[in-house]
Amino acid sequence: TKLGAIESSGLADATSEWSAHLSWWLHGTNGRLHVEISLTPEVRSRVQSLSVGFIPHPSEALASVATAIVAALSATPVEWPASVPRADDLDTNALVSWATWRNSGGADSLALDPVPNSAESPHSAVFTLRSDATEDEWCDSADAAWGARRPGES
Q1: How far apart are CA 54 and CA 45, in angstroms?
Q2: Residue 111 CB neighbours (<10 A)
Q3: In contact, 114 and 63? CB cutoff 8 Å
């Protein structure tokens, strides 16, 4: 299976938004599986919805690209990392300008959550960028040549 061997059930960290709802993660050797279930509000409850979604672990290339970009955006001066090729239409000047503005205001440093929020493959994922004050989602993908790409490119 895609998930591989299950390493932990994640039920200890399950969350619930109401009494007839439960959401949890199964952690496997190849990624994570998000499971969410809700029941009908009846005396004899029935399954109202069941959602299951697989998120593969990022490839080493993708994790390296994401880490290099976040480190470069947190540095002073801010520069696009020379080790990361980019797609021609990626506006790195806008990213550098944003990071320079952010860093000049005394903002705390950015940290990349190494576990993606979502992913279509091991080579494309949405990561969370965290700081003390903010949490933003950031989409990144990498091809076999370690090139950064825009969301939606294959």
Answers
A1: 27
A2: 13
A3: yes
- For 128, list phi and psi in degrees, rounded to 5: -105, 130
For residue 124, count CB atoms less than 10 angstroms from its CB and return exposed for 0-12, middle for 13-18, buried for 19 or more: buried
Q: Which residues contact 153 (CB under 8 A, 6 or more apart)?
A: 87, 141
The C-alpha atoms of residue 138 and residue 62 are separated, in whole angstroms, by 13
φ and ψ of 149, to 5 deg: -135, 165
Check the CA dihedral 9-11-17-22 and report its sign.
Answer: positive
What are the residues facing 112 on neighbouring strands? Answer: 129
- Going from the C-alpha of 1 to that of each of 5, 83, 101, 121, the distances in angstroms are 8, 34, 45, 15
Comparing 15-24, 36-45, 57-66, 143-152, the range with the smallest average pLDDT is: 143-152
pTM for this entry = 0.63
Give the pLDDT score at 142.
Answer: 54
Q: Residue 120 contacts by C-beta under 8 Å, 6 or more apart in sequence?
A: none
